[in-house]
Amino acid sequence: MLSYQHAFHAGNHADVLKHFVLTYVLDSLNKKDKPYIFFDTHSGSGIYDLLDNRILKTGEAQSGIQLLLQKKDELPLELNSYLDLVQKYLEKSLYPGSPEIECNKLKENSTLVLSELHPTEYEFLKQNIYKSESAKNKNINVHYRNGFEMLNALTPPQIKRGAVLIDPSYEELSDYQNVEKAITSVYKKWTNGIFLLWYPLLAHRDNVIQNMKNNIVSKIKKISPNVEICNISLCVNTKDSHQEVDLQNLSKNNPPRLYGSSMLVINYPWKLPESSQIAMEKVAEILGQNGSGSVEVEIM
Ligand code: SAM
């Protein structure tokens, strides 16, 4: 049963990190005229209304992208491409999800494949893409389908240049295993694809999360020892900020807030680690709670 709704979280610190990296990768693919293919396995509904009660209830966009944009003059140039794109939507009280960002950046000679499994989110996604100005005259396929299964079925793609964003909701512990399985088996047949994996940083799942990351890296390195992998983490709080939560009694309705999140990038584009360090340091300074923001960029 899928119950996660991204509308509660759109525009939060995790989206800022994820969508900054996404924009960077799309810009780097766009530097050449050659076509590429982009897969988004867990698309969500594509565009979010910042006046929706769910988003107002958590206040996550207010303490995320909206707070960041209030300080636009202080932000480094590295954030420009992402911020210029989202600002147009924020002026209309909207926030673009990953599919809308991908539609904006997609070149007419390239292809975007989107997948969403929640029936309502899928309907919204289809409508949003259908209405989107940025999707006009572009090759976009929207699937009502399990994203892991879609990725496995459509790879290796005929066009070898391309990337995939894997952004599950991690509602079930099995998502961590599914991610590991999907990335390693798809990488084996598409070694030059760029893989972007978003994952949460949650104190009570620390072991599972670190195991997933380490297993992926060691399996990929076994296939291609010289592959370039980086891991970018943005924290807006400290890990022990969850200590007061009784982990035995976590209820589905009251999940702990993320203290941060990470992007693992396989075959990362030129200068992504350096640009992320500069961009996310300032983001951590602004979005970190009581000065506790931090950034870690690892080359693996
Ligand atoms: N990528 C989106 C963005 O950045 O705007 C947010 C995606 S949200 C974190 C995760 C989405 O995955 C949810 O809409 C959920 O319904 C969907 N989902 C969960 N399991 C799925 C699966 N196996 N295949 C495809 N979609 C799935």
Q: What order do the helices and strands come in, and which of them pair?
A:
Blueprint: H1 13-30, E1 37-40, E2 47-49, H2 53-58, H3 65-70, H4 80-90, E3 94-96, H5 98-105, E4 111-116, H6 119-131, E5 139-144, H7 147-154, E6 162-166, H8 174-189, E7 194-201, H9 206-223, E8 229-235, E9 260-266, H10 272-287, E10 294-299
Parallel strand pairs: 1-4, 1-6, 4-5, 6-7
Antiparallel strand pairs: 2-3, 7-9, 8-9, 8-10
Helix amount: 40-55%
Distance between the termini: 35 Å
**Number of helices, where a helix is a run of at least 4 consecutive DSSP H or I residues:** 10
Oligomer: single chain
**Count of extended strands:** 10
Q: What is the mean predicted local confidence, pLDDT?
A: 93
Give the tags.
300 residues; alpha/beta
Task: Walk me through the structure.
With 300 residues, this protein is α/β, with parallel strands linked by helices. Helices cover 40% and strands 18% of the residues. It has ten helices and ten strands. Strand 4, helix 6 and strand 5 form a beta-alpha-beta unit. S-adenosylmethionine binds next to strand 4 and helix 7.
Outline of this structure?
The protein is α/β, with parallel strands linked by helices and 300 residues long. It has helices at 13-30, 53-58, 65-70, 80-90, 98-105, 119-131, 147-154, 174-189, 206-223, 272-287, and strands spanning 37-40, 47-49, 94-96, 111-116, 139-144, 162-166, 194-201, 229-235, 260-266, 294-299.
